[in-house]
Amino acid sequence: MYCILINRNMDLWTVFRQLNKIEGPKFFLDSSLNNPDTGRYSYIGIRPNALLRSRGEIIEYQEGGRWSSWKGDPLAALQKVLNKGKSRRLQTKIPAPFCGGLVGYMGYDMGRNLEKIPHIATNDLMMYEQYWGIYDCILVMDHFQRQLWITANDLQKAKELQQTIEASINACHDKEDEDTWIGELSSNFSRETYTQTVKNIKERIRQGDVYQVNLSQRFTFPLEGSSLGIYKILRRINPAPFAAVLSFDEYEILSMSPERFLRIEDRKIETRPIKVPDPEE
Length: 281
Fold this sequence. Notes:
By secondary structure, the protein is of the alpha+beta class. It has helices at residues 12-19, 74-86, 155-170, 191-207, 227-237, and strands spanning 2-6, 26-30, 41-46, 50-55, 58-63, 66-71, 101-106, 130-135, 137-142, 147-152, 180-182, 186-187, 219-220, 223-225, 242-247, 252-257, 260-265, 268-272. Helices cover 23% and strands 32% of the residues. Strands 1-10-9-3-2-15-16 form a 7-stranded antiparallel sheet, covered by helices on one side. Strands 6-5-4-8-7 form a 5-stranded antiparallel sheet, covered by helices on one side. The termini are far apart.
């Protein structure tokens, strides 16, 4: 593992908006709410070595620019990729808890691979149930130490990323182009239907059919301009220690969360949910 300290004072948002212009998948794990315990580090990655995605039992994997696909267990495929990454041993002390690996998402529908759940939802957005990029060269910001690092398994890759960053920042003479127009929001629930659904849930709970329901609704709106314009507004008015932009060729995911789901370090597991369940509930 190689580490390069970039002494130049750079604004991380400026760095990402410039790197975002580069084609291909990329990510920004953004601790826009800096906190020594939960928001100390931010990460940026471009040009993943490989991609793994699945929808149902159809698994697709890309490496070296070529896709292959097969039918199987998507969780087993993910474990195989994880095992492949574990074969690399760190030879250098790294400046942050994360120095590269899998970055992406796993959707709720992946739960059908663990439990027998009826297939009643329609995948009208045609999103993948999991989508991962495998990155071995990333940019790390330590907000506490005010240091910017590049970590990589290959020194040449680290130097290439450094040159890309320098070239992108030096070319940044234009004003921010993330101006965005957002139209009127609409929901997949009417007020009447939503109210009746809540009543139905309360009755099902009373009858003992279920004990908890996470009722959600989808809001959609027309958009003109860059999706980064939305994210720029979100990170300004609602900074969060666990925010993210996941950019794939097919779509982008913007996320803002105050919660840490799980952190595993030295065989210790930490979770920071918004609400801690009451054992007597």
